[in-house]
């Protein structure tokens, strides 16, 4: 008995000849290629994997039944393979199978231990076994068919061999099924939670995205929250990636501009290489299509061809098109993982660079780098593997085309070369264009973020209109810069499509061969394979160059000089040796300019040292020098390693608070100690504030602490420093923002003889203007205006020091003897506006309303839309008409031609050029006009809402959320949204033409179109609900990350002093991981959609081939259909993807629309007619006015059963024109709220709206912006425009004053010398170069200049010829020494003579000459009268305040 012999069965073939219908492989080919080679590779893989697993820990402790089933089947498979070896060795006729069966047996033997280890030591089903068994199964099926075709009924041994081989294949299939069973129910993560479904999914689940099914179901059924999403794969987390980052990306002296690229390549090396394998498989499957088309068309032209070949072609279609779907899915799956890791690396690197940056550095660009730049890098790297893969595809296509057409194939090569040269010439401009664009974006986003943080001060200063104009101007400039980059993209994209448009025309014009159907469409398939990757390359290059440009920007940021701690540690200190010693130290912030010069000082342990000096003398610089934060220094700063731990309790002059609860701000990253917490709360008088807050110490402070008062911010900052486990603390003028009696008690409890620091025996340094505290100091250091130390003595030498401080303009006071209990009786606080948790609009998350689309379309311009649709339709028609024209041409040339070749070539060239022109003009209209128009309009609407929004918005909404609207959302509107719109439009027009071409192969195919359309509708409907929510979650999850970035930028010095840098880096990693979850799952959802549509395309291809082979369709139309099908699947995928992209990106428009429409804005019900000089008299009257920060409460009436929580209650007074009134009271008593009420930044309850009258006009009838322009106000916190704007522009944003006028007012406040030292009023300025006191002086100068410009203006709407007006001052002298304060009051008295002045102050002596003083307590006006009269009145509140302040 022997196998039926076939000629050539002992050769490599591969195809057998003369038997088995000439449709089978030879035995030798199957034995070597289908068995020995793959099984040898599988054995090597199994051995390596087994060795790796032996070193791993056991993860799965249960699942014994599944393990037993696996081992049973694996053992059975091994036994079957041994039987095949024995049978082959026993019978001579089967000896050709000995080698292959032995190798298969070795592989089977490796499976048993590997299966055991994979079950217990791997979280996911075995990828190695799944791949090996899957491939082996397919190859085994082919061999099984051969064995049964060669076996006859009476050949017993062969039949037994065939049966055993079939049983082995069945066992292999069963084992493959068992190996892909999940083990998630038996696995727990280290934190006790469930692992991500992705981490426990097998290769087939990953390749088909089956692991995403639960997410799609949840997204379809309900509104998703971040908590509902799968956990991030631990291999993608920052915790996993960071150790490798520290080894590779650590900054060093040898770093250069390519360091970041090389570092990324090393960190992501594994993730970069894994996608190569499926991408190579995709190349193979794609290039099988032309050969498949050629074989199919050849079969259709042979009427007598065997039916088996037709069935084989159907099977080939299944393998090729399903292979394309699966390999494409796996390729993008692994590549998206690499992109996710890349973002984690870059964001972490930027954040760590921020924590290393010197205190003097401007890190405003960090937010743009970690948002816009990194998103652009992700877009640039999206097609990273396409460069090498497309290059291979182009080379293969050219080679195959040359084999098929001969010398005519040189035409597409020449066309490609010309287009490449032209593209390279254009792309030389891409890098600089992208950097310019990103720089403009960075400038706008940075300034917008600072405006959002300081909106209260901008509104008080009446600078919102200049700010709005400036930001909108930045936006227009940004869009113009972006247009240059987009024009490059348009030109390069057109050049990318040019080879596909021009090459066929030239190729078919030059060919001398008869254009038969098979020749035309096989050639077209090769040209498609040439044109598609070429087009992809051209489109990808600008994005890659843009990404590399952004990468260079990040590289430049990372290479910036890091903060260098110049302090020198000293060994253990004994006795009275200093904790910190400065020897001949000179310190400054700019090279060659020292603020402190040649100072020497020792700070002794267990002592309280006080530092005093005039404004800008260098007190804050001394604090920073002790912290090691001053970049320019000489001499030595020597620190004690015993007393100075790595943690220093530091309180900055401007308190840094994170957007957390008060409790979390105080505790920070320290362990919670209830006793210590209560101790510091008592010391800082915060308990009374907690009692007044509805949520107590769980109250959120808001971004930049906007929800609490200035005094509360200072005391929270002090409490945080005291809570820190350290024995060394530095306080920089922390009591200046407190009212006098609160400051007295805080000082007594913290710094006093029985204070907390004394009890702890801590060393403390306090910089202050309040000289009355000096008797409590153990050491007093006096800094003069030249930056030198005038005196350095103990408190016993206070008399000598007093003589010197008087010379500096600082007036010493004796420490008062205050009745503590009496002061505490008046303790209260303003009710903080509690930031509310923003709730998402669930309808927006699940469905974009028509109103959103109307809003977006209305911003594009009607003419732009009409022109775009015309050219888009032209693109869709002419792109596909060429294939139909080739059908007519090939059929006419095959018989007696009715037209000349020149006619067909000319018309074909015309059609191709028309589709190229349509592409160019459609892209040009979209990217040059539509984006610029819509981007400017949408931004302007949102910006206007921002600057006119009620102040409550900034207290109730996280600033990161608002910043995100003007950063991430606008990035989507500028980039992804228009790209999605234009591509969706093109692909719809294109798909309609393609569908018509495909249907020409068989009229029956058209019947499937409704079914396909229905399936696509269901797919996108099911997919869209989830993807849209993921996009919105992606945007929202980034807001906390942006907020932390902003917080770190503001408080990096504090974080370093507290030793919390590493803790913040860890927090950043957690926030980054959270933000990655929706972004990563959205990318996976998009790839899942692509796989689904590719699978649908595979079904469509199988239907086309089945109908063609069984019904013998027209070969020309079938060829046109199959060539079109090569791109149709991608087009269908792109349609659904771009549509869902539009739906998800339109969420950005929706968010801006909701922001613009739902944000409460300032307004009036009825506008009063104002003359051009109102308010010229300055008479102010309030009649029983009450106010609350709650919008709901403000709008309610007093008849409600529950009393309103009023921040101001029943305020009644009348201020006569020209009077000067001081407003006093402890921190949180309602002083600032009263000023906000006069500026309409706080509205009274509804029934009191008309009870606030200025010069006879209720201010409720005056537009808020107009009111603030007519009333001059100076806020407590100084504000400035972005670094680089001139001194003149900062002084006069409306630019109505001359340079000499600017210089004059600067001279009046004592800043002219400083300005001249920095280049004059026309030079760019940086607010960081000014001390806190100088900043306030600058704002006073701005107010003076504004008063002068108003007086001289000829505009009747702004001029005030009467010479009077209203001036509001909010604690402007808090950071000033006495001499400077007297100068400011003298200047104000002279410049604002005739003005009605209301001044909030904690310093009482300067107001004795005021006409009246208002004393506020618990939101009520409890006392008013002339200051000197109230001082003489026994029991008056003002007299108590005066006594608490140390007055005599």
Describe the protein in words.
- The protein is built from 48 helices and 20 strands.
- The chain starts with 26 loop residues before the first helix and ends with a helix.
- About 4% of the residues have low confidence.
Label this structure with key terms.
1448 residues, alpha/beta, elongated, six-stranded mixed sheet, single chain, 48 helices
The overall pLDDT, averaged over residues, is 81
Measured by DSSP, the beta-strand proportion falls in 5-15%
How far is the N terminus from the C terminus?
Answer: 127 Å
**Strand element count:** 20
Largest sheet: 6 strands, mixed
What's the overall geometry? elongated
Low-confidence stretches: 811-841, 1191-1204, 1354-1362
Q: In DSSP terms, counting alpha (H) and pi (I) runs of 4 or more, how many helices?
A: 48
Strand order of the largest sheet: 6-7-8-4-9-10
- Specify Rg, calculated over alpha carbons: 39 Å
Helicity, as a percent range? 55-70%
Quaternary organisation of the protein chains = single chain
């Amino acid at each position: 008995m022997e196998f039926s012999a076939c000629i050539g069965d002992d050769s490599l073939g591969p195809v057998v000849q003369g038997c088995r219908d000439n449709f089978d492989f030879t035995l030798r080919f199957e034995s070597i290629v289908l068995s020995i080679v793959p099984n040898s590779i599988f054995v090597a893989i199994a051995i390596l994997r087994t060795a790796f697993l032996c070193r791993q820990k056991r993860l799965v402790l249960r699942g014994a039944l599944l393990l037993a089933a696996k081992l049973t089947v694996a053992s059975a498979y091994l036994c079957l393979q041994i039987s095949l070896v024995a049978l082959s060795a026993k019978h001579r006729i089967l000896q050709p199978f000995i080698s292959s069966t032995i190798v298969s047996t070795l592989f089977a033997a490796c499976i048993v231990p590997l299966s055991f280890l994979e079950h217990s030591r791997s979280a996911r089903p075995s990828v190695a076994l799944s791949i090996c068994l899957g491939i082996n199964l397919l190859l085994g099926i082919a061999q099984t068919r051969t064995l049964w075709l060669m076996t006859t009924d009476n050949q017993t041994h062969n039949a037994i061999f065939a049966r055993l081989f079939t049983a082995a294949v069945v066992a292999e299939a069963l084992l493959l099924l068992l190996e892909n069973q999940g083990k998630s129910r038996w696995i727990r993560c280290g934190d006790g939670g469930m692992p991500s479904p992705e981490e426990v999914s097998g290769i087939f689940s990953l390749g088909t995205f089956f692991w995403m099914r639960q997410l799609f179901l949840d997204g379809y059924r309900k509104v998703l929250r971040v908590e509902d999403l799968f956990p991030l794969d631990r291999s993608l987390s920052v915790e996993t990636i960071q150790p490798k980052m520290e080894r590779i990306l650590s900054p060093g002296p040898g770093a250069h501009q390519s360091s970041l690229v090389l570092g990324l390549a090393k960190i992501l090396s594994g993730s970069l290489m894994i996608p190569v394998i499926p991408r190579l498989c995709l190349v193979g499957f794609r290039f099988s299509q032309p050969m498949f088309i050629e074989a199919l068309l050849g079969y259709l032209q042979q009427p007598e061809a065997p039916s088996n070949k037709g069935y084989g072609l159907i099977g080939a279609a299944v393998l090729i098109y399903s292979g394309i779907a699966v390999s494409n899915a796996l390729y993008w799956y692994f590549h998206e993982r690499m992109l996710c890791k890349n973002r984690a690396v870059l964001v972490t690197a930027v954040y760590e660079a921020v924590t290393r940056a010197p205190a003097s550095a401007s890190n405003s660009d960090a937010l743009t780098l970690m948002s816009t730049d990194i998103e652009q890098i992700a877009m640039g790297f999206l097609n990273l593997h396409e460069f090498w893969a497309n290059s291979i595809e182009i080379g293969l296509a050219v080679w195959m085309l040359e084999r098929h057409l001969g010398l005519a194939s040189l035409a597409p090569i020449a066309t490609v070369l010309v287009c490449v040269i032209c593209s390279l010439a254009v792309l030389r401009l891409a890098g600089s264009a992208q950097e310019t664009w990103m720089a403009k974006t960075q400038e706008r986003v940075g300034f917008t973020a600072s405006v959002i943080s300081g909106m209260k001060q901008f509104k008080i200063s009446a600078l919102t209109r200049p700010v709005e104009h400036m930001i909108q101007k930045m936006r227009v400039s940004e869009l113009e810069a972006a247009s240059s980059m987009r024009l490059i993209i348009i030109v390069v994209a057109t050049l990318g499509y040019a080879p596909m448009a021009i090459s066929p025309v030239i190729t078919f014009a030059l060919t001398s061969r008869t254009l038969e159907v098979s020749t035309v469409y096989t050639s077209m398939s090769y040209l498609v394979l040439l044109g598609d990757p070429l087009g992809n390359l051209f489109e990808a290059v600008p994005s890659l160059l843009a990404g590399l440009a952004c990468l260079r920007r990040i590289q430049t940021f990372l290479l910036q000089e890091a903060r260098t701690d110049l302090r020198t540690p000293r060994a253990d200190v004994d006795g009275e040796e200093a904790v910190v010693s400065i020897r001949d130290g000179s310190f400054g912030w700019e090279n060659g300019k020292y603020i402190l010069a040649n100072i020497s000082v020792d700070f002794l342990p267990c002592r309280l040292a006080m530092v005093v000096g005039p404004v800008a003398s260098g007190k804050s610089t001394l604090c920073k020098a002790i912290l090691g934060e001053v970049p320019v220094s000489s001499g030595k700063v020597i620190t004690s390693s015993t007393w100075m731990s790595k943690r220093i309790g530091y309180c900055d002059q401007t308190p840094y608070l994170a957007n957390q609860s008060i409790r979390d701000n105080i505790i920070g990253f320290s362990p919670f100690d209830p006793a210590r917490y209560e101790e510091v709360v008592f010391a800082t008088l915060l308990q009374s504030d907690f009692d007044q807050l509805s949520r107590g110490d769980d109250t959120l402070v808001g971004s930049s602490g906007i929800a609490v008062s200035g005094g509360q911010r200072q005391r929270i900052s002090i409490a945080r420093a005291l809570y820190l486990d350290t024995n060394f603390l530095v306080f920089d003028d922390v009591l200046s923002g407190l009212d006098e009696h609160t400051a007295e008690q805080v000082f007594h409890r913290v710094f006093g003889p029985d204070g907390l620091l004394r009890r702890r025996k801590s060393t403390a340094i306090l910089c202050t203007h309040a000289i009355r505290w000096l008797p409590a100091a153990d050491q007093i250091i006096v800094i003069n205006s030249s930056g030198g130390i005038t005196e350095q003595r103990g408190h016993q030498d206070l008399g000598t020091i007093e003589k010197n401080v008087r010379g500096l303009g600082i007036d010493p006071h004796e420490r008062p003897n205050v009745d503590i209990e009496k002061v505490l009786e008046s303790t209260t606080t303003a009710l903080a506006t509690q930031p509310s948790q923003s709730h998402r609009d669930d309808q927006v998350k699940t469905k974009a309303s028509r109103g959103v689309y109307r809003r977006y379309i209305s911003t594009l311009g009607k003419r732009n839309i009409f022109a775009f649709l015309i050219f888009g339709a032209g693109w869709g028609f002419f792109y596909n008409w060429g294939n139909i024209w080739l059908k007519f041409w090939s059929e006419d040339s095959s018989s007696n031609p009715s037209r000349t070749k020149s006619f067909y070539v000319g018309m074909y060239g015309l059609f191709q050029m028309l589709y190229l022109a349509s592409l160019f003009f459609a892209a040009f209209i979209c990217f040059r006009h539509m984006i610029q128009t819509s981007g400017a309009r949408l931004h302007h609407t949102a910006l206007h809402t921002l600057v006119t929004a009620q102040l409550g918005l900034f207290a109730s909404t996280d600033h990161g959320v608002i910043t995100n609207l003007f950063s991430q959302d606008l990035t989507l509107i500028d980039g992804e949204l228009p790209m999605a719109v234009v591509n969706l439009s093109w692909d719809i027009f294109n798909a309609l033409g393609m569908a018509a071409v495909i249907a020409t192969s068989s009229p029956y195919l058209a019947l499937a179109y409704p079914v396909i359309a229905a399936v696509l509708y269901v797919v996108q409907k099911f997919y869209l609900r989830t993807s849209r929510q993921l996009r919105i979650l992606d945007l929202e999850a980034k807001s906390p990350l942006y907020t932390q970035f902003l917080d770190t930028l503001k408080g990096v010095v504090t974080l370093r002093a507290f030793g919390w840098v590493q803790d913040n880096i860890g927090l950043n990693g957690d926030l980054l991981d959270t933000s990655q979850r929706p972004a990563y799952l959205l990318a996976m959802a998009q790839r899942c959609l692509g796989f689904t549509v590719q699978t649908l395309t595979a079904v469509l291809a199988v239907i086309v081939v089945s109908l063609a082979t069984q019904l013998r369709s027209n070969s020309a139309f079938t060829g046109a259909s199959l060539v079109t099908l090569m791109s149709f699947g991608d087009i269908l995928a792109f349609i659904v993807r771009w549509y869902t992209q539009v739906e998800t990106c339109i969420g950005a428009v929706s968010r801006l629309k909701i922001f613009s429409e739902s944000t409460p804005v300032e307004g009036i019900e009825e506008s009063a007619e104002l003359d051009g000089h109102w308010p010229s008299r300055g008479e102010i009257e309030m009649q029983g006015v009450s106010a609350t920060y709650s919008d709901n409460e403000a709008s309610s009436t007093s008849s409600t059963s529950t009393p309103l929580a009023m921040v101001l209650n029943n305020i009644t007074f009348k201020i006569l024109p020209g009077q000067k009134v001081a407003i006093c009271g402890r921190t949180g008593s309602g002083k600032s709220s009263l000023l906000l009420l006069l500026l309409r930044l706080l509205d009274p309850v509804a029934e009191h709206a008309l009870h606030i009258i200025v010069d006879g006009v209720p201010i409720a009838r005056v537009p808020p912006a107009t009111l603030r322009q007519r009333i001059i106000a100076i806020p407590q916190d100084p504000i400035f425009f972005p670094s680089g704007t001139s001194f003149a522009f900062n002084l006069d944003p409306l630019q109505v004053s001359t340079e000499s006028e600017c210089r004059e007012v600067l001279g009046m406040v004592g800043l002219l010398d400083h300005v001249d030292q920095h280049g004059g009023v026309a030079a760019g300025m940086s607010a960081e170069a000014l001390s806190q006191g100088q900043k306030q002086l600058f704002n006073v100068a701005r107010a003076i200049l504004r008063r002068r410009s108003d007086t001289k203006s000829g505009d009747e709407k702004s001029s005030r010829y009467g010479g009077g007006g209203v001036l509001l001052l909010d604690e402007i002298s808090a950071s000033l020494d006495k001499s400077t304060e007297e100068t400011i009051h003298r200047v104000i008295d002279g410049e604002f003579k005739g003005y009605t002045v209301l001044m909030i102050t904690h310093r009482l002596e300067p107001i004795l000459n005021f006409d009246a003083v208002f004393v506020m307590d618990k939101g009520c006006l409890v006392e008013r009268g002339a200051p000197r009269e109230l001082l003489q009145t026994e029991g008056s509140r003002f007299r108590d305040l005066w006594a608490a302040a140390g007055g005599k």
